[in-house]
Each structure stands twice: as structure tokens, then as C-alpha cells.
Amino acid sequence: MVEPLSEAALAAALRSRWLGREACFFPEIDSTNDWLKRQAVLDPALPDGMVAFTDFQTGGRGRLDRRWEAPAGAAVLCSVFLRLHWPEERANWLTMIAGLAAAEAIEAESPLRVGLKWPNDVVVPAADNGWRKLGGVLVESTWKSGRLTQVVVGVGLNVNVPADVFPRYPTPATSLLAETGQAANRPQLLARLLERLETHYEAARDGVSPQPAWAARLVFLGEAVEITGAGAAPLRGMVAGMDPWGNLLLEDAAGTLHTVAAGDVSLRRQP
Ligand code: ADP
Questions:
Q1: Chain segment 55-103, per-residue pLDDT in tens
Q2: 207: Cβ contacts below 8 Å, ≥ 6 apart
Q3: Is 119 in the pocket of ligand 1 (CB under 6 A)?
Q4: Is the distance from the beta carbon of residue 171 to the nearest atom of ligand 1 less than 6 Å?
Q5: Left if phi > 0, otherwise alpha if psi is -120 to 50, otherwise beta: which for 64?
Q6: If you take atom 19 of ligand 1, which residue's CA is the nearest one?
Q7: Start-to-end CA span in the chain (Å)
Q8: How many other CB atoms sit within 10 Å of the CB of residue 11?
């Protein structure tokens, strides 16, 4: 069923305990991440777990200020504000739990099997043996004395977007509609996403690494890839896995294992 997004539709579908219980919907906004970041400055009592979601972003962003584009009324575009007191090494966990929550929400609401492409993409297998991007995660953090104190976790999912509206991206894009031929219910999908995020966040807050669950969905495992952005030259090797903190383990041709931090790097299958 195609039901429009609204605060009432989310509230009716949502079974979380606290995350997303306060939520603001915008028919159009610059970016839900930016709105929550502004609110956090304006309102020191901004509730933990506050959500912003929208039908259209005029300034949606990926990492490195790349554009995140989605046609109006067809995507799930949401951000969650969280207060925390986490040591630095857990920073990647937020991107990881958001990816896991997105994957589980999509699997709950569609017949798709979802993979995660390190460090922040939500993908599905493609007929050409590659992967297509269904969505992405953008986490923006505030630090105080070496601790993560506030984060905004942004998720964009291509839901009812016709396949042909996407430009050619380095990782080709797809949507739930394009993959299944069926329009998905966006309020339900958003509700599942927030519920799963709450569960994974509570486990991570208790110190449980999301790494095993994430690694089970890791795409390109055992395959030859190229990582750009980590240094002057691309780093080439075979994906050997991940460490508990979400760094990628890459084995080069000489058998040396490299630990690659997510930072601002991009990963592609070797041409
Ligand atoms: P990366 O693919 O390197 O992880 P980001 O996570 O920063 O990149 O996401 C931004 C990139 O994603 C853009 O530069 C563009 O190539 C692509 N992109 C933008 N909008 C979408 C979308 N709706 N679906 C899939 N990919 C998109």
C-alpha cells in the first residue's frame, strides 16, 4: 500500500520505546541532518532519539559533501539525534548499526536480501555479479575531550523511485520498487528502520560490537578491491574481513594485512 509519509503515519506504525517517539516531518527541507544539527545548537534539551524525516531534500549530502539525490515523495530520508558518551574507537559503530537497521528494515518489508558495502552503503546483488546501491548512511558527530557526545545519524533509502531516474553513479543505484516491481509502504519501512536502530543502538551502548552482524552482510569478502582516498596511491588487495571497530582488513599481494580506517575512503571492485 502506498501511504504518504506524515508524523501520524509514522506514529501509527512505530513500535520503538524511545527512538523516534518525537519526530518532525517536513514536506521539503535542505537536509534532515542539517536541521537536527541546527536544532541541537538552538535547543540544549533536544530529546535523545529525536527524528527528522522528509519527502524531499534540496541539499541532501553523502560523505565528502557529495550530493545525495532523491526525487520527491519516493524515498525514506531521515535523521536521528543521539546523545552519548562514547570513546573514539566506537565512532564507526553508529554507521554500522544504521546500515544494519536499514538492511533489516528492508528485509522485513520486502523479499530482498540486503548487503552492506563498506563503509556506508546499503546494497543489493545485481545480475552482472556486482552490487547496486539502495541507500546510504551519513553520521555526523560532535566531540568533547576525546569523547563522542552527540551524533546525527542520517539514512537515505531509495524506496519507490523508478530505476531510470538515477544518473550513472560509480556504484549504480537502484530502489525497492525497481528491484521488486512493488511500491513499498514508506511509513512502515521508516518505523522498522527506527525500531531496529533502537535495538542495535542499545546493544552498542552496552559495549556489544555490531561487527559480527555487519560482517555477515559484508560484500566483496574474499574479492580483489581497490581503495582510494587513504593515501596518494590506491590501495589494492583482497577483502579479508573487518575488525571489531569497523575498520576493513585488506590483504595485499605480498600477504600483508592492512587495517583501513573508514574515514573518507572509497572502495571499488578492482577493474
Ligand atoms: P560512496 O558511494 O563513495 O560511499 P557516498 O556514501 O558519499 O559515496 O554517497 C554519495 C554518492 O552516492 C554520490 O556521489 C553519488 O555517486 C551517489 N548517490 C547520490 N544519490 C544517490 C541515491 N539516491 N542512490 C544511490 N546513490 C546515490
A1: 999 999 998 889 999 999 999 999 999 999 999 999 999 999 999 999 9
A2: none
A3: no
A4: yes
A5: left
A6: 68
A7: 41
A8: 13
